[in-house]
From TrEMBL:
Pfam name, any one: Aminotran_1_2
Domain Aminotransferase class I/classII large span(s) in chain numbering: 16-340
Organism expressing this protein natively: Roseburia inulinivorans
Cofactor(s) needed by this chain: pyridoxal 5'-phosphate
InterPro entries listed in its UniProt record: Aminotransferase_I/II_large, PyrdxlP-dep_Trfase, PyrdxlP-dep_Trfase_major, PyrdxlP-dep_Trfase_small
Keyword Transferase part of the UniProt annotation: yes
GO molecular function annotation: pyridoxal phosphate binding; transaminase activity
Record protein name field: Aminotransferase class I/II-fold pyridoxal phosphate-dependent enzyme
Keywords: Aminotransferase, Pyridoxal phosphate, Transferase
Superkingdom as given in the UniProt entry: Bacteria
Amino acid sequence: MRSVIHGGDIYQNEIELDFSVNINPFGIPEKVKEAMQESLELCEHYPDIHHAKLIEKIGAYYHIPEEHILCGNGASELFVAIVHATKPRKIVIPVPSFYGYEKAANVTEAEISYYEMKEKDGFCLTEAFLQELQEDVDLVFLANPNNPVGNTIEDMLLEKICDRCRGKKITVVIDECFLEFTRKRGFFETHSLQEYPNVIIVKAFTKLYAIPGVRLGFLFCGDQNRTEQILNQLPEWNISTIAEAAGLAALDETEYCNKTTSYIEKERAYLKAELEKMEIKVYPGEADFLLLKTEHPLYEKLLRAKILIRDCGNYRGLSKGYYRIAVKTHKENEKLIATIL
């Protein structure tokens, strides 16, 4: 059996509560469910190969020109397509971070340099990272917020990184898949596409709208020619009729999104306070999950209670004793805390 490198592996164990995946605790919005159900009638036809309506609506929502937008079968497909299109000789990945960047980097013969963020810094990027960005680097993956830590990159530092990379012709891929759970604004909400042609932003519907089984991600690329190069690496009809219907409906869920941000903030604070009462270290963060450190074998104890969390011992830069838990409903969060006690 293959080793588990992601959360959400509910298929090998009997699970009643899954805290290993970081999706919206409110579940799929009803209008999104209805749209997917209604789209079944169209599944006897091919989906729109250009998913034109979805790209138009994403562009209007984020104020990005349509020719700079691509959609993918989840963010993971886009990471791979970016690497294929860029043909990098050297890739830099700060760690600990999402395994998908390493998986994407390994589709080529590129050298991969892992930059270890320090525990004493809360596993945050600091100005020291700038020295890692030299002329021999072609591509860097950044997560904002970081997974599994949940912290965000300080705004001025992120700008300095993108400026330095632009000067050295380094492509910067910024994963913003969890950003909507925070109160921070996206990079292309505060900077122009034209100013940063070397920056690619990747987002997904997966987490915010609780539809990981649908597989729907998208990107914004500052360089229109690079956008076309990435498009050439994507399969035709890579967005299903059901996924497009879900995305179109999701973008109307403004109230749902606003409610989510406040709820995550409140429940995250609750979990942090309760865990710290048990002398479990919680690292600072803003996303809909928390990184913990404890000597107690939490994974095994919770699994016996049919609760699944993410054992982070296999993350580069982490070791035994690190765990990640999602922020879920208050009732579910209370059950988690009661089970740990």
